[in-house]
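Board notes (copied after class):
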Amino acid sequence: MFGSLGAPELLIIALVVILIFGVGKISGLGRELGTSIKEFRRAVKDEDAEAARQQQQQAAPPPQNYQQSVQAPPPPPVAAQPPAQQSGDQQKPNVF
């Protein structure tokens, strides 16, 4: 995997890194790395779910409503009425 590096060489490198950075700094980096990987996976999963949802919406035809709408009959025609009298007109009322 690492070419000619074996287990003893990797152990020595790990000890040197721990001595340089300290255990607290390395554990903090590991925690941050794990959190960022978890967030990345969640974002990828959400994006995949959103893409699948959009494909379903595009593939499925919109539901059609086959109910017939009942229309009310039109109102009866209104008989013609004489124009309203204005206050300036002095007409006699029509008496039958």
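Comment from the instructor: Residues 70 and 76 are 18 Å apart (CA to CA). The radius of gyration is 43 Å.
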